[in-house]
Specification:
The protein is mainly β. Helix content is about 0%, strand content about 55%. The strands form 2 sheets. Strands 2, 4, 5, 6, 9, 10 and 11 form a 7-stranded mixed β-sheet that branches. A 4-stranded antiparallel β-sheet has the order 1-3-8-7, with no helix packed on it. The mean pLDDT is about 95.
């Protein structure tokens, strides 16, 4: 079973940067794609970005294009989310997830990101 652990969240001022890390352990060879999602209070969980383990195919939500960068270190089974030019509306709990058999089935516990104005 794959386990995902996020880290790197915190409090930052608007315009600042944070880098989130998602460390995957277990049988990651059974997963195809890693994604980052976020959920603000009272809102649904939204897709932010994804990257495939092989080939590094990347997708971004329009809301973060040009500000966030997803990357991976396959040897370390780790995925990163570099977040620049942060805005108060980026405040949310950020989750990483692993796609298996066509859907995101495996989720981390989440890490809080708070952007102050």
């Amino acid at each position: 079973q794959v386990q995902l652990v996020e880290s790197g969240g915190g409090l930052v001022q608007a315009g600042g940067s944070l880098r989130l890390t998602c460390a995957a352990s277990g049988r990651t060879s059974n997963t195809y794609r890693m994604g980052w999602f976020r959920q603000a209070p009272g809102k649904e969980r939204d897709f932010i970005a994804s990257i495939t383990w092989g080939g590094g195919i990347i997708y971004y939500a329009d809301s973060v294009k040009g500000r966030f960068t997803i990357s991976k270190n396959t040897a370390k089974n780790t995925v990163y989310l570099q977040m620049n030019s942060l805005k108060p509306e980026d405040t949310a709990v950020y989750y990483c997830a692993a796609e298996k058999s066509g859907s995101y089935q495996l989720w981390g516990q989440g890490t809080q990101v708070t952007v102050s104005s």
